[in-house]
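To assess whether the prediction recovers the assembly geometry, we first specified each molecular entity separately, as shown.
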Amino acid sequence: MRKDGRTEEEIRPCTIECGCIRHAEGSAFIRVGDTHVLCVASVSDRVPKWLARSEQGWITAEYSMLPRSTAERTPRESTAGVSGRTQEIQRMIGRALRAVCDLHMLGTWSIVVDCDVIQADGGTRTAAITGAYVALAQAISWMIQHNLVRTWPLSAQVAAISAGLVQGDVLVDLTYEEDRSASVDLNLVLTHKGQVVEIQAAAEGNPFSVEQLNRLIGGASKGLKILFEIQRKALEGIVVRS
Amino acid sequence: MRKDGRTEEEIRPCTIECGCIRHAEGSAFIRVGDTHVLCVASVSDRVPKWLARSEQGWITAEYSMLPRSTAERTPRESTAGVSGRTQEIQRMIGRALRAVCDLHMLGTWSIVVDCDVIQADGGTRTAAITGAYVALAQAISWMIQHNLVRTWPLSAQVAAISAGLVQGDVLVDLTYEEDRSASVDLNLVLTHKGQVVEIQAAAEGNPFSVEQLNRLIGGASKGLKILFEIQRKALEGIVVRS
Amino acid sequence: MRKDGRTEEEIRPCTIECGCIRHAEGSAFIRVGDTHVLCVASVSDRVPKWLARSEQGWITAEYSMLPRSTAERTPRESTAGVSGRTQEIQRMIGRALRAVCDLHMLGTWSIVVDCDVIQADGGTRTAAITGAYVALAQAISWMIQHNLVRTWPLSAQVAAISAGLVQGDVLVDLTYEEDRSASVDLNLVLTHKGQVVEIQAAAEGNPFSVEQLNRLIGGASKGLKILFEIQRKALEGIVVRS
Amino acid sequence: MRKDGRTEEEIRPCTIECGCIRHAEGSAFIRVGDTHVLCVASVSDRVPKWLARSEQGWITAEYSMLPRSTAERTPRESTAGVSGRTQEIQRMIGRALRAVCDLHMLGTWSIVVDCDVIQADGGTRTAAITGAYVALAQAISWMIQHNLVRTWPLSAQVAAISAGLVQGDVLVDLTYEEDRSASVDLNLVLTHKGQVVEIQAAAEGNPFSVEQLNRLIGGASKGLKILFEIQRKALEGIVVRS
Amino acid sequence: MRKDGRTEEEIRPCTIECGCIRHAEGSAFIRVGDTHVLCVASVSDRVPKWLARSEQGWITAEYSMLPRSTAERTPRESTAGVSGRTQEIQRMIGRALRAVCDLHMLGTWSIVVDCDVIQADGGTRTAAITGAYVALAQAISWMIQHNLVRTWPLSAQVAAISAGLVQGDVLVDLTYEEDRSASVDLNLVLTHKGQVVEIQAAAEGNPFSVEQLNRLIGGASKGLKILFEIQRKALEGIVVRS
Amino acid sequence: MRKDGRTEEEIRPCTIECGCIRHAEGSAFIRVGDTHVLCVASVSDRVPKWLARSEQGWITAEYSMLPRSTAERTPRESTAGVSGRTQEIQRMIGRALRAVCDLHMLGTWSIVVDCDVIQADGGTRTAAITGAYVALAQAISWMIQHNLVRTWPLSAQVAAISAGLVQGDVLVDLTYEEDRSASVDLNLVLTHKGQVVEIQAAAEGNPFSVEQLNRLIGGASKGLKILFEIQRKALEGIVVRS
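The predicted structure of the complete assembly is given in tokenized form:
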């Protein structure tokens, strides 16, 4: 039994509220336990320079933590500079979204998904990916309704979860406290069809075996099935496909 | 009658939810119509360098808009640099809070109040001041409960509201659209006793008379009475005075 | 009687020397007591991007203090970063100048007025506005002589002055020392017709009443009448109207 | 057969020259095909602030590419800002080195390993890790000879290699051209005992299966065995253990 | 005959006004033709970190041009970043001043000399050096009067001038226009005893001979004699030696 | 006799390896004693903005030191900011190269020469100039072979060397240690025809006489003759003239 009463492979209570920001083409407020992330998708007719001559769109993400989302106040990055951690995370979110989208179908539109952490308790980057997918799907639905995109370009749902080895046990969906005591930290990004979009696992202290890696993947995969279901419910009645 | 059905001196529906951020010593989520600002107070044992040798505490504020709080997405200041507008606003919030607090009673503690605009529809700086007061009062209550402060240091409530001249009429609590068509823009910061903490009024286009200025002050003052009442309710059952 | 022998509403000796910088289209060196500001207007055929498609010109201001204009040397902003105070002031100067100019008459020209404080003794932002008007008027006269502008676009003179409450008394045109001991600090920007362009007043310590605000405005208005006269003399023989 | 004549699981010719920089405590120039990286370890008596009170040392890495290491010249990061990619890579190198070092045995010393890419043809981050281990081992040997460290703190060799799926085939140690056409890109960091230190795999385009992931791991592991052998030879006669 | 009526080796009219800034320990306003530079010396009890343990003081210089000192307005370096040219010049001024001062006699005091160009017409760096010496001498005199320094630490006067080859002729003290058409540009820093402190000469276009270099040095040396005389007059009645 | 056995006017062993970087149009690795600099020339079809309308090309240089090229590790400029020293050096290298090139013959092409110091022992800026010429000549040869340039645009070889006064003696090609004890430091840039491209000499401590300056120039000129010979050998069989 874990500190908050969960079993080893049980994920925290999760809710996703879609359409919460009035000005935006897509938005989702995701709560995974005490981790709360606001994901907002903005459609723009400007693609990055290096894509200018190609015939495809682009999806990118930005990630930020409000100063007091953490137990101690963290200085703003507008003052302190954008950290390596932030850049690593926003690149990861962007890759995950692009992996399930046919960018040629976006024409020359680009979408930015802003993921702002309102409150943090471990797993902010995975919650951001799971919420960002919902905001993205709403934005694309908006584009179809406004005839900016003709065909539904998303090939699958994408979501992410963490898992870790704590004293030899595989725990799924780590809180901040569990994450700190884990000897291995896995972040797994899957499609709802069970395909891998991205995997990152690093030893915090002692290296680990390939067999342990596969057990972590197994546990995380189970948790993700629940998240895909919650995504579907959040989008019900909102998404209009082509 | 105004576009949203209000009379000239009527303010928008306003709610303040106190204590919404789990990690923070004080927090308030204020909604004034479609303007939503999260105000979070953090207590710290570090005062600015230039105060190091004095025997007083300090209160400061930071202000930021989430990228898609606005109708068009605004680039993050971590990327674009902190704008003059942002700095002007956070200095104004800080001054307002310090004007009602006896900083010597704070000992050598300092408090930062982060005001993050989640959604914007005019009047974000005045909503931030009104919400920041509530977050500050909760944080000071927490300090008293934890024996960091002995005597209640706040001498009055402080809140702020906008008013403007639109085609010769005094309108109170402007939406973004009303603000754009106003020929004069007033921001008024008062204590609940009716004393002025700060006044800023600038002509957008044609200069105005001192008589018009006094009519604007009058209208704004009435609106503020309602905000002081809402602040009191939000703090009910939360604030513990010394 | 004040420390320097002035009565409560008396302003410091003021001189404005117009045309002091050889390369510039407009320039004015203003001395208000020991506060000396060099104001230089540059005409340019580039307007800000966001105005590119409109049919109007633009006026902007930059403000800076030489490192040793102050009693203690202040680090340069090229090293330390442009402070919030600087940005607040240069936005204020720009607003004041634009409020008396019909920007459509400027065609697609823009004017930058650089206000560099050579020596500071309180009231640098108000002296900058008063001097900047003179530099601007000379630059516009130059534009008319060179057929860049057809009709005189300035609707009024603009000038500014400070006032404050010191131990309950209204003092006009504060020195640095008086400013530090004032409990309220007013900056008032008027046209020579007595209309308000901008008003800023903030409590340093104790909040103040609306009645006190109106007494401050009254005192400052009297001082401004003298400054308008000095502006007119500085421009005599220099300005050529259309 | 691959373009350069290698079989699918064959790595490029690799050499490591240890001790090539005269001033440094440890250095290694690694060449993996046309990818050339200079790795230089510097010992310092300053640990990061947040470690100041602990009783342990620290190892960190910096990564940079010379402007013309690439086919097209890349602007320097001193001009363009440190990119997210650079920060991601240098964090990864640092983690890999720390995972095989008992930081408590370093006392309060810290080591920075600078990895500068002289010429790039794919796999610069993995070559940097493989070379950095050699520079680190030489630096630690130097510390032991100078009595700064008593016990050999490295628990294993660490090295890294890339692998990818190209048209369904597992290729090991990708060139830049192969990397661009791969649909999955794996970076694997192992100890010479076969334990995982870090694994990163991301879909470039189509998601992949867990089975494919395991085939990539298998291929990469074989290539790493050769690199561990080359590391050992490079350090022969140089490393003095406690 | 030159455009402004000067002979080849004749310098422009030069005046130096000492003590023009009220707050500063030393100040000099130097005018060389239409080149006007304000030089202000500030005494501080902080030396740079790397000197902290030594028993000597330090002298440094900062150089800046007001935006409209030039024919076209130049953006401020607080906005555009400090240019290489600015840094090169301020390092040169600092070296020149330190070369004639026994830094050990300064105790642990440091002096910053700010050189701000009010109006530019060629030779701003050399005028800055000539004026900075006067400001420095006044500041040191102030230090002696206030018992911060015991013995006069300056071993000689230092001044600088430019010279150039224009169509084969040696011209001394170049205006901006002459400088642009010169094929060689020399900046010479001498002491009043005729010793060289620094020499910089570079070909703009065609390389030049050592013989030509010596002719340039000869012409510049004559011009400097007049500047040393003007420095002495500016300091008359102001400098108090130990 | 000097510490490393050289006579006063003897330069250190010098080698230049041309064509060492595979991707680049020109490259040279120069070793002058323990000072090792990698010089790489990149051809680009973009000229600086201010040249856009002219009919000429441009040559520029960038200079950087690897962090551990020095005895103590120096922080990267991507972190610490580009120093004044770096900017001064890269401007000097650029001027030297442009002085021997007819920029109109380059058409609208520009060339950047990156000079990265791998190991430093005094004289890095002069070694950079000497090596940069070789990289530039190879790049221009490549341009001629690819028909980007028709006529050989270089009018002469250019190289540089240092010299200094150490206890009254003229020493040529100073090591870092010699440089620190020199009372005068000369950097001399000549063409192989003996013409001066640039000369910089500054007193470190005591000013010096014109006669001493001429002795330094004489010694340095002799050393440069050997460097011009080494440049020619490095380019043998590589340069193809038009």
